[in-house]
């Protein structure tokens, strides 16, 4: 029996990279370019270094991060990733300079925020009438504290009773701890939850492995439709409340 609903954020609630056109219109660098520039600027201010050296260190760190994320289900926090890049360059950065770069990295998607996906606010408000809701989301750059800010800025934070962010849990989806924390916060068993997300491996198969139901959202990212084992597919959030209630037998 389904008693609660969990939501992925990126490309399920938040339209990933929808902030990039807004950044370009403001004459800002892309997020990737700005993050690397910030690290280079901080290092170069202390001891001169080329941008090429910093870019190479960032590329290497990103590759290591992706391996650990996908194979060990851990997302290194921004400070850890920056320190790995700095160590790889055999450089040091003062604590105050590192603090500044970390803050700029983490708050970039709050300063220029990505959009909420069409219809999701109404769907969340509708479902909250009958089900406790929780967020279960990997935090790749923006940490849980900033993702809560984004939810509050978009007036949907109040609908959620639970939050499992990978930087706070210590693991990422599809690790059991992510879903277990959400279940504990909502007072339900893991197998009494249905998860909504856009990626078949993490959101669908990960949830299924724990005895949950799972819904694939394809309104923003449709790459996994042909391979999914989801219990249902949702193309637009206006359909979501009906899909969830049907799976719940209502």
Topology readout:
Elements: E1 4-7, H1 20-25, H2 31-46, H3 51-72, H4 78-88, H5 95-106, H6 108-111, H7 120-127, E2 133-137, H8 144-153, E3 160-165, H9 166-169, H10 176-186, E4 193-197, H11 200-208, E5 213-217, E6 232-234, H12 240-247
Parallel strand pairs: 1-2, 1-4, 2-3, 4-5, 5-6
Helix pairs in contact: 2-3, 2-5, 3-4
Your description of this structure?
With 250 residues, the protein is of the alpha/beta class. It has two domains: 4-16 and 114-247, HAD superfamily/HAD-like (Rossmann fold, 3-Layer(aba) Sandwich); 20-111, no CATH class. 48% of the residues lie in helices and 11% in strands. The protein has twelve helices and six strands. It has helices spanning 20-25, 31-46, 51-72, 78-88, 95-106, 108-111, 120-127, 144-153, 166-169, 176-186, 200-208, 240-247, and strands at 4-7, 133-137, 160-165, 193-197, 213-217, 232-234. A six-stranded parallel sheet has the order 3-2-1-4-5-6, with helices on both faces. Strand 2 (133-137), helix 8 (144-153) and strand 3 (160-165) form a beta-alpha-beta unit. Helix 2 (31-46) crosses helix 3 (51-72), helix 2 runs antiparallel to helix 5 (95-106) and helix 3 (51-72) crosses helix 4 (78-88). The chain is elongated, with a radius of gyration of 19 Å. The model has no long low-confidence stretch (mean pLDDT 97).
């Amino acid at each position: 029996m389904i008693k609660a609903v969990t939501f992925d954020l990126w490309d399920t609630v938040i339209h990933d990279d929808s902030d990039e056109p807004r950044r370009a219109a403001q004459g800002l660098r892309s997020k990737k370019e700005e993050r690397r520039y910030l690290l280079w600027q901080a290092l170069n201010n202390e001891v001169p270094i080329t941008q090429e050296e910093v870019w190479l260190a960032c590329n290497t760190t990103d590759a290591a991060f992706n391996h650990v994320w996908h194979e060990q289900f851990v997302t290194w926090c921004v400070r850890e990733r920056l320190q790995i890049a700095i160590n790889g360059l055999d450089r040091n950065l003062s604590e105050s300079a590192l603090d500044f770069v970390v803050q700029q990295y983490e708050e970039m998607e709050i300063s220029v925020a990505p959009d909420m996906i069409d219809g999701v606010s109404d769907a969340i408000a509708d479902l909250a009438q009958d089900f406790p809701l929780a967020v279960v989301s990997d935090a790749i750059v923006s940490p849980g504290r900033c993702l809560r800010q984004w939810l509050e800025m978009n007036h949907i934070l109040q609908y959620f009773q639970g939050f499992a962010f990978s930087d706070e849990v210590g693991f990422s989806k599809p690790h059991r701890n992510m879903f277990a924390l959400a279940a504990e916060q909502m007072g339900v068993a893991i197998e009494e939850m249905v998860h909504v997300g856009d990626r078949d491996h993490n959101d669908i198969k990960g949830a299924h492995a724990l005895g949950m139901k799972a819904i694939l959202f394809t309104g923003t990212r449709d790459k996994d439709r042909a391979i999914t084992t989801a219990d249902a597919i949702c193309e637009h959030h206006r359909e979501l409340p009906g899909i969830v209630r049907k799976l719940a037998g209502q």
